[in-house]
Amino acid sequence: MSIGPYLRSLRGRIPPESLSLPHAGVRRVPGLRREEVAVLAGVSVDYYTRLEQGREKNPSAQIVEALCRGLDLTGDERDHLFRLAGYQPPNPVVPNAVRPELTRLLEQWSDQAAFVLTGTLDIVAPNALARALFADVTHQDNLARMVFLDPAARAFYVDWERAAESVVATLRHNTTRTPAAVMDPFVRELSESSAEFARLWHEQRVRGKTHAVKRFRHRQVGDLSLEYQAFDVPETAGWQIIIYAAEPGTASAEALALLGTFTHLLHNAGFGRQK
Questions:
Q1: What is the set of domains in the chain, with CATH numbers?
Q2: Ranges for the HTH cro/C1-type domain (predicted)?
Q3: Pick the residue with more confidence: 150 or 263?
């Protein structure tokens, strides 16, 4: 599919009033006129017409961005236009917080430890079981700082070296999904604070989070072998939902359930509640 038919479709279904265009008399067909789209995008009417008609097949990324901006495209529509033009969609804006609806959903998962992981591996909106799982470490707000800067992490992660390699490979993967203004200072901070991080970073390994088994040694419930699944959060710069669960019928499942019971009891007693 080329960019022309998609632009015609967009033009035909975007109400002029949604883009604050002045009233221009009776319209024979709904939607925008070509002249209006051209003005909104800052291109000539002739150039825009050639785009729609397929006579101009290689618009620059700057032109595509101007079209997205002029038509107020966001999310999937914006990404689709970039891909039709032959470009990878630029990184979306880094959100400031997790949506309240998602936070409530994570809290409802009482049998799984769940949280949101940002592009720089900040741990955001952890549910009660996730907070209990990470209770042994002090750097609970960021996975990379937890692994490399927290002495307790070497006891908490049974396979610490493997966890360290995974963290660095994930950060390297996220450099193409997270704005450099956000990622570069974070990588510099860790490189200056941890020689091990700096060494692994220079190895250039790349691996995004999908699913894997992690082994933990928790002071309250002992050893845990948990499998995590990672799901992308739509319209975010590399944010993911991470869900840790134990295989049913295993000792780890019993230990995780016990940890959940401790968490529930502490919550009812008034301890461990977020302020």
A1: 3-84 (1.10.260.40), 100-269 (3.30.450.180)
A2: 31-78
A3: 150
User: Residues 164, 169, 170, CA angle at the centre, nearest 5°?
Assistant: 100
- Nearest CA to 45 out of 79, 88, 13, 11 is that of 11
Kindly indicate the confidence band of residue 177, based on its pLDDT and cuts at 50, 70 and 90: confident
Q: What tokens appear for 25 in the block?
A: 């008399």
Using an 8 Å Cβ cutoff, are 85 and 59 in contact?
yes
What's the full length of the chain, in residues? 275
Mean pLDDT confidence for 190-198: 97
CA of residue 53 relative to chain centroid, distance? 36
Strand 222-232 versus strand 113-117 pairing type: unpaired
Please report the DSSP string for 165-189 in residue order: HHHHHHHHHHTTTS-HHHHHHHHHH
Across 48-53, average pLDDT: 94
* Contact by Cβ (8 Å): 77, 9: no
| 167 token code pair | 């963290």
30, pLDDT greater than 80 = no
Q: What tokens does 199 get? A: 């060494």
Q: Which two tokens stand for residue 243?
A: 């869900």
Question: What pLDDT does residue 273 have?
Answer: 42
Q: ∠ at Cα 139 (200, 271), nearest 5°?
A: 155
Pairing label, strands 211-218, 123-124:
unpaired
Residues 101 and 33: their CA atoms lie apart, in Å, by 38
Give residue for tokens 């961005």: 65
Q: What mean pLDDT is predicted for residues 65-80?
A: 87
